[in-house]
Design goal:
The chain folds into two domains: 2-154, Leucine Aminopeptidase, subunit E, domain 1 (3-Layer(aba) Sandwich); 164-485, Aminopeptidase (3-Layer(aba) Sandwich). With 486 residues, it is α/β, with parallel strands linked by helices. 33% of the residues lie in helices and 23% in strands.
């Protein structure tokens, strides 16, 4: 569904046709709607309400042949994420009914709620409306026109802020949804250079340059593919000062067969989303640029394709990473940590950031531990962990902290190199992967790792997203930046 917003001055409600939405309190009391309805319409609505379950939060009535009334109930102290979910529910309702037009009477929102409420509501509507039908011969042409009627002045600044978040989230979803034969590393790197036009400084390091730099852990993952391997940086300077940037690093394995350690065929098609960590970083950076965020930030993504082939990395190979540390590759399907190892050290050395947050669909073990409710959060810094956890709770992109401890290091030590890329003993799969990554933070930079394997893609629709790519992480990190660094 495509949603088109128009903001209009409040007019005579009786002249409006189609769906008309009013806001009420959680008891669905409608006394404040008298001035918007004729006495007959008001009486009819009261009669209809008596036969409805008022706990639903969204009530729909055919008031007459030309008008459908929708009542949306808000709590007295409703939180922004609850308002967004109400908007998403309305999108679902209107989509199921094939509605083409709705008038939302925003003046009926309780004065106890902040002025942002209508914009939060519309934000939820638009987030829920996303669909990926690029490759369908017959595309759904359902366009919903949303007229927001209000006596108050339209606040373009608030509207644009939410619109920038949506564009960032949807760009992330688009990237994750693309098939592997289209969005391979060559194409991905090419698309990222197009983001220069919105104000990002984009630098692309190709395979030849990476080899010269000593990024052998990253390059090793992609050497079985006919496609190139890349490291791409996206810089946003929102502050005039040269303050240290916030750094975000993403795993961009455009398709993961497992390499020589080949995955089972069943569900391998889902491995197009193994680049979701990088897509979150890209979507976040696009959002920051579009809303002219007052922060200095850098996004770094490692783009590879993990394929079996005559030149593919073998189990037992030893590579020297950008950090100078050597890694014994015991399993080529534990490739994401190899990509991140070089990307993290490169980011720390080149940009000397205030902090580093990496995101990756890193382990199946995190899905076993947390399912699709929480991302796994690992960190060397308590304050950074607290900030991420709180931001996640506010936007309902939740993260749960799991332990790191030096005792886990022995599970990743190698007899033949400085470390190995898997834990052969078994157990603590997500923690040992994070413990591995921590070794590539060389200068005690505050660092957090978000394992989003259970969150990036969903077979089922969520509160604010349809099934498929969820865009998880963009809103979380945007809120993290808003609350702590702007």
């Amino acid at each position: 569904m495509i949603i088109k917003n128009t903001f209009l001055k409040l007019t005579n409600i009786s002249k409006l046709s189609g769906c008309i939405a009013f806001f009420t309190n959680e008891k669905s009391e409608i006394s404040h709607l008298r001035k918007y309805l004729s006495s007959t319409e008001y009486k009819n609505l009261n009669v209809l309400l008596k036969n409805k379950n008022k706990k639903k939060g969204l009530l729909s009535f055919d008031l007459n042949p030309n008008q459908k009334i929708i009542l949306i109930s808000f709590k007295k102290n409703q939180k922004p994420n609850e308002t967004e979910k109400s908007g998403a529910k309305l999108t679902d309702l209107l989509s199921s009914e094939g509605a083409k037009l709705i008038h939302i009477i925003s003046d009926t929102i309780s004065v106890s709620l902040k002025p942002d409420a209508i914009y939060e509501f519309l934000h939820g509507m638009r987030l829920k409306s996303y669909s990926f039908d690029k490759y369908k011969s017959k595309k759904e042409s359902n366009t919903l026109k949303v007229n927001v009627a209000s006596s108050k002045k339209f606040n373009k600044k608030i509207y644009d802020k939410y619109r920038a978040i949506e564009l960032g989230v949807n760009y992330t979803k688009d990237l994750v949804s693309e098939p592997g034969n289209i969005l391979h590393p060559d194409e991905y790197a090419k698309r990222l250079t197009q983001l220069k036009k919105i104000g990002l400084k984009v630098s692309v390091y190709n395979e030849k340059q990476l080899k010269k730099m000593g990024c052998n852990a990253l390059v090793g993952v992609g050497q079985g593919s006919v496609r190139g391997s890349y490291l791409v940086t996206l810089e946003w300077r929102g502050k005039k000062s040269n303050s240290k940037p916030l750094a975000f690093v993403g795993k961009g394995v455009c398709f993961d067969t497992g390499g020589i350690s080949l995955k089972p065929a069943r569900f391998m098609e889902d491995m197009t989303y193994d680049m979701a960590g990088s897509a979150v970083v890209v979507g976040l950076m696009k959002n920051l640029a579009l809303r002219k965020s007052k922060v200095n930030a850098v996004g770094v993504v490692g783009l590879v394709e993990n394929m079996p082939g005559g030149n593919a990395q073998r189990p037992g190979d030893i590579v020297k990473s950008y950090s100078g540390k050597t890694i014994e590759v015991l399993n080529t399907d534990a490739e994401g940590r190899l990509v991140l190892a070089d990307a993290i050290t490169f980011t720390e050395k080149k940009f000397k950031p205030n902090l580093i947050i990496d995101l990756a669909t890193l382990t199946g073990a995190i899905v076993v531990a947390l399912g699709s409710e929480y991302a796994g959060l690992f960190s060397n810094n308590d304050n950074l962990s607290k900030q991420l956890h709180e931001a996640g709770e506010k936007v309902e992109e939740k993260a749960w902290r799991l332990p790191l401890h030096s005792n886990y290091d022995k599970l990743m030590n190698s007899k033949n190199a400085d470390m190995q890329n898997i834990n052969y003993v078994g157990g603590a799969g997500s923690t040992t992967a994070a413990q591995f990554l921590q070794r590539f933070i060389l200068n005690k930079t505050p660092w957090a790792h978000l394992d989003i394997a259970g969150m990036a893609f969903s077979k089922y629709a969520g509160a604010l997203n349809s099934s498929g790519a969820t865009g998880y992480g963009v809103r979380l990190l945007n809120k993290f930046i808003e609350d702590n660094y702007e």
